[in-house]
Each structure stands twice: as structure tokens, then as C-alpha cells.
Amino acid sequence: MTPAVSVTDLRKVYEGGVEALKGVTLTVEEGDFFALLGPNGAGKTTLIGILTSLVTKTAGHASVFGVDIDQDRSLAKTYIGLVPQEFNFNIFEKVIDIVTTQAGYYGIPRAEALPKAEALLKDLGLWDKRNQPSQRLSGGMKRRLMIARGLVHKPRLLILDEPTAGVDVEMRHGMWDFLRKLNQNGTTIILTTHYLEEAEALCRNIAIINQGAVIVNESMQGLLQSGGHAKLEQIYLDLIKQETKSS
Amino acid sequence: MTLQKIWIAYYTMLRNEMVRIVRIWSQTLLPPVITSSLYFIVFGAFIGSQITPISGFSYMQFIVPGLIMMSVITSSYSNTVSTFYFAKWTRTLDEILVSPMPNWVVVVGFVSGGVMRGLLVGALVLGVSLFFTHLAIFNVGILVAAIVLTSVLFSLGGLINGVFAKGFDGISIVPTFVLTPLTYLGGIFYSVEALPPFWQQVSLFNPIIYMVNAFRYGFLGITDIPLWQCFAVLLILLIVFVFVLLWLFRRGIGVKN
User: Fold this and answer.
1) Is the pLDDT of residue A247 over 70?
2) Residue of A nearest to B257 (CA)
């Protein structure tokens, strides 16, 4: 089966010489729920940025469902839905318009986008707020709005960059259920999060990036077993400590 | 993307921009109308009444095309520079960049917003000018070509500025220190032929002279510069700006990290 994401020797050096990615190679299989973890500044957002064309890579290859992002960037992008870390929608725009506008950018006519937006907003508990400007939403609602926006074109791969940051426990669990269902229905999900219990509860495979390099890439179960069934958080902390010492 | 999808994506960008322009009309449409009205009153009615006709036209009639053009230039430029920079600053630009829209559609989408605002403002200023003077149209084709091409050119210029801008200062430096002087010295208020020979030659380096003269020809049938030169300058600049922008977007300069 063609992997959902395949990156080989991916490098990124920012202006000023900061090396954000130092030859990252990893694969995410289709249908996977994949955790991409690492401390702040490890290179996770840069990697996501390269896949979604928000960041230009310095070297290496990346493909999405077998489509090389350099060969057919436009096609590769149709497969991806992105839920970024920071709120990046127009705060004056209505909730429904934010979702349908995004659909429009993917070439979906408004008449076709409206029922899709309705279904997503209902699933995510935002339908009552559809005519409100997004600035009036709470933090948790804004996060869910970004998920709705990222899904409106029915992507095969959903990339979630810290989707539950600042979201209360109850709402977070609601989002987990939603994402589990989405994954069961065939959407491949890549999740970056600093809530490690979230990654442990949701993801089947995991990669940990530290200082621009992959230090772990295996199944969640395998990692937990190798750590003597300790909590992911403890294993993660030990690994990062070891890596920092050795570098 | 298929052509139909590209059209939908483009229309989405344009629709968004039109909604924004109309929603904040007091910032986008009203100021140039008020400024132009003041020009009509002060320069056209008060001072202009004491100035002898130019090529058979009253001073008011002479300056109206230039003032319309000035509003169009300023509005087109400021629309793209501010919209693009604001989208970059708030990261709403990412919504567009992650989509499969080709770069050229993104450029055309932003530029179309600038052109729409420029032409809307131009039409409003033209409407106001009719309260002050009678205007006949000499050649509607030249008139439309001059205003549309100029609006496209300055929308492209604004977008280039927006791409390079790294702060709010960056979006105001060019309009304040480059665009405004060039516009005021662009033959709006005077005929180039009235200048001493040396300054006539210097004026030819100002691209706005060519646009104002082409547009004035469309209204009054008079121009200081041969019409073909006016359109040649417009088209050359336009092609250069298009290539510069496509190159910037392709390389991601000022657009991506």
C-alpha cells in the first residue's frame, strides 16, 4: 500500500543558519493515527509546514499518498487537511463562512460546501454559532472550528498541530471521540501534541523528533513495552534527557 | 486543479475581498471620495477659475481625469499591499497557501481585489466630479484600457510591496515616499508642455505621466505624450511586475518561511 506520507532525508535551514530539520526520514502508513512528538523547537511544525507547502525545504524528498510535493504540489495538497497550532482565520468572518470559504479555495462550489459545513459544524457542536463572527467563540470552539475548516474538502490525511491546546478536559475528550471516529472511517491522522496522554490514548504509531532529528519511530505499543510499560510521558522524558546529554 | 475548480477558487478570493471592501466602506471607499471632492473644490473651483483654459478645456475639466486616476492608483495599490500584508501578519494567508490553488491564481485573486476597489473608487470620484463640471468622453476604449491597465499595474505593485513588507512601516513607506510624489508630479495638475525643457525630460522618467495622459486622452482627446508610448510603458511595466510576482511566489520569498 502507498504510504500516506513518506519523507526522506528532509532538511531545512532557516535564514540565519538555524537547522530545523537534519535529514528526517519517516513514513506514515495510510489509515494510521500517528503521533509526532517532540519538545518546542524540535522541528515538528517545520516538517508539517513542508508537507503543506507553508515552508520551503532546503533538501530531501516528501510525498503524500505517493505524490511527490515537488512534482505535483497541487494534487498533493488536495489530500491534506491542516489544523494549525495558531488560530489563523479571519476573526471578523462568520463561522459558516470560514468553513465554506476554505472549501472554495479547494474548488468546491458554495452550494456544495454548505451541507458539508453544516454536517461538520453539527458534529463538532458549532452549528448554533454558525452566524457568529469567529472572534466571539471561546478558545475550545475556535479549535473545533479549525478542525471543521481542515476537513471541509474531505482530505485523506488530517494533520493536527496541537489541536487541544488550551481546551478543557471534557471538550478534549469530545474531540478525541470525534478524531477516533474520523480515523476509523479511513482518514489518516498525524497528531502533534504536548499532552502525551492524548497521544498515548489515540495513536498507534509514534515518532519523536528532537533538535531536528528523529530519535524514535515505532509503534506506540512497542515503545511502551520497551519502556517497561511505563507511561509515555516518562519514556519521552527519559529519551529527551538521554538525547540532550549525548548531544 | 481543473479549470472549473480554479474558477471557483478565484471567485472565492474575489468574493471575500468584495465583501471586505464593502463592509469597511468608510475606510476603503469614502476617504478617496472626500479627498477628491476637496481637490475639486480647492483646485478646480477656487483656484481653477482663475487659470486660463488648457488646450481649450477649463482647468477643472483638465484635472478631473488625473484626479480620478490618482484615486484609482492609490486605492488599487493600498488594497493589495494592506490585504496581503495583513493576511501574512494574521496568518490567514496560510488558508490560501495550503490549498491546491496554483500561484498564478493566488496572484490574480489578490490583484483582482485591488482592481475592483480601484475601479469602484474611480467610478465614485467620477460621479462626484460631475457635480463640478461637464465631462464628455472622447474615446471610451482608450479610457477603459488606460484605467483598467493602470489599476492592474498598481495592484501588482502593491502586492510586490506586500510580499517584501516585514512590518507595518513596510507597507506605508512606498505609498508615502514614492507613490505620492510621483502621482503629484505625474501631470495631474499641469500639462508637461508647460514645464521648462529640462523638467519635461525629467518628467518622462515618471511612469504616472504616461497613465494620466492616456486616461486624459480618453476623456478630452488631448495628451502630452504619444498614445502608443503611454500604452507601451504601461504594458512593459505590467509584464515585468507579473514576472517578478510569479517568481517571488514560486521561490516563496516573502510568502513562505
Assistant:
1) no
2) A55
Whole-angstrom distance, CA of residue B118 vs CA of residue B149: 11
Within 8 A of A154 by CB-CB distance, chain B residues are: none
CA distance B103 to B100: 9
Measured CA to CA, the distance from residue B88 to residue B199 in angstroms comes to 41
What is the average per-residue pLDDT within B65-70? 92
Per-residue cell: B217 = 486622452
Nearest Cα neighbor of A107 from A78, A79, A130 is A78
- From B160's Cα to the closest Cα of chain A, the distance in A is 19
Contact flag A104-B8 (C-beta cutoff 8 Å) = yes
- Asked if B98 and A74 come within 8 Å (Cβ–Cβ), the reply is no
A107 → closest Cβ in B8, B90, B256: B8
Residue B116 pLDDT: 96
Residue B23 grid cell: 463592509
- The residues, ordered by sequence, that sit 6+ positions from A131 with a Cβ below 8 Å of its Cβ are A94, A95, A96
CB B73 within 8 A of CB B150: yes
**C-alpha distance from A21 to closest chain B C-alpha (Å):** 14
Q: What is the ipTM of this complex?
A: 0.87
Q: For residue A50, give every residue at least 6 positions away whose Cβ sits within 8 Å of its Cβ, in sequence order, or none.
A: A7, A10, A12, A21, A56, A57, A62, A69
Angstrom CA distances, B103 to A103, B13, B95, stand at: 17, 13, 13
Task: Find the closest chain B residue to A51 by CA distance.
Answer: B98
Q: What is the pTM of this model?
A: 0.90
